[in-house]
């Protein structure tokens, strides 16, 4: 049932006919009326929220701001992971790596997906953000990565920030980024890549070394051309 709840709150409110506030909350009484949730009551919903290991949901008890009534009612939302473009979550901006409690941002993926990621970078795809965890499964991390991840991509957040890419921290501790104007976080912002067993992905290391050599050669060539152009002995 948790997977159904996650899908509805992150992606399916429109198709299920649910009204969603700009901050992502929907009325619990409306949620429990839809066919997908008809076998769930408020008490069971509270148990789902409290027992969710990744703290994906948040329950709120307050009046309907669009109603004249002051009666408090239950609301629920997903803390992140939306594909619904109108949702504006109360995210904490990250301005330096010091704003990340663990100081680490890592994306977990599969070997199959890595074949594309290593050349094109990470993509937010249909979601509003690319999701990054503050560590790896087993290190106390509770949200932001699947336990089944085979490849771990560590992000140089400061380098990306310096390039103008924005990052945020969700209410449940997931590091989020919209990436560049195309919705990608390019490979140049990968600090290192490992397998889930902690082994370096040598193919990536070789690719990076080759890229560094090419960039270094280009820089040397540019410096040489500049020096020649500025030399008084240079004949134009």
What do the pLDDT scores average to? 85
Query: Could you give a short account of the major beta sheet?
Result: 4 strands, antiparallel
Q: Which CATH class of the largest domain?
A: Alpha Beta
Question: Helices and strands, in N-to-C order?
Answer: HEHHEEEEHEEEHEEEEH
Distance between the termini: 75 Å
Number of helices: 6
- Outline type: elongated
Model regions low in confidence, pLDDT < 50 over at least 5 residues: 213-218
Number of strands: 12
Number of domains: 2
> What is the gyration radius calculated from CA atoms?
23 Å
Helix fraction bin: 25-40%
Trace the largest sheet across and list its strands.
4-9-10-7
Second-tier CATH architecture of the largest domain: Alpha-Beta Barrel
At the fold tier of CATH, the topology name of the largest domain is: ADP-ribosylation fold
Structural class: alpha+beta
Please characterize this protein's 3D structure.
Keywords: NAD, Transferase. Helices cover 30% and strands 20% of the residues. It has a 4-stranded antiparallel sheet, with no helix packed on it. A 3-stranded antiparallel sheet has the order 1-3-2. Strands 5-8-12 form a 3-stranded antiparallel sheet. It has 2 domains: 2-78, Orthogonal Bundle (Arc Repressor Mutant, subunit A); 92-209, Alpha-Beta Barrel (ADP-ribosylation fold). The protein has 236 residues and is α+β, with helices and mostly antiparallel strands.
């Amino acid at each position: 049932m948790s997977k159904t709840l996650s899908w509805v709150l992150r992606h399916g409110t429109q198709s299920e006919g649910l009204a969603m506030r700009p901050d992502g909350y929907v009325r619990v009484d409306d949620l429990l009326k839809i066919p997908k949730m008809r076998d769930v009551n408020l008490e069971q919903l509270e148990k789902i929220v409290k027992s969710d290991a990744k703290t994906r949901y948040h329950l709120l008890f307050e009046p309907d701001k669009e109603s004249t009534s002051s009666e408090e009612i239950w609301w629920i939302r997903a803390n992140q992971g939306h594909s619904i473009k109108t949702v504006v979550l109360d995210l904490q901006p990250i301005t330096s790596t010091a704003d990340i409690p663990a100081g680490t941002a890592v994306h977990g993926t599969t070997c199959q997906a890595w074949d594309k990621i290593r050349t094109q970078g990470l993509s937010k795809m249909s979601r509003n953000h690319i999701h990054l965890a503050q560590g790896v499964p087993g290190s106390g991390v509770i949200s932001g990565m699947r336990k089944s991840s085979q490849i771990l991509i560590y992000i140089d957040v400061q380098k990306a920030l310096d390039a103008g890419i924005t990052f945020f921290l969700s209410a449940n501790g997931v590091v989020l980024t919209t990436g560049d104007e195309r919705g990608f976080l390019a490979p140049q912002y990968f600090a290192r890549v490992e397998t889930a067993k902690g082994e370096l992905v040598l193919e990536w290391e070789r690719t990076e070394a080759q890229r560094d050599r090419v960039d270094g050669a280009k820089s040397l060539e540019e410096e040489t051309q500049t020096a020649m152009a500025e030399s008084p002995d240079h004949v134009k």
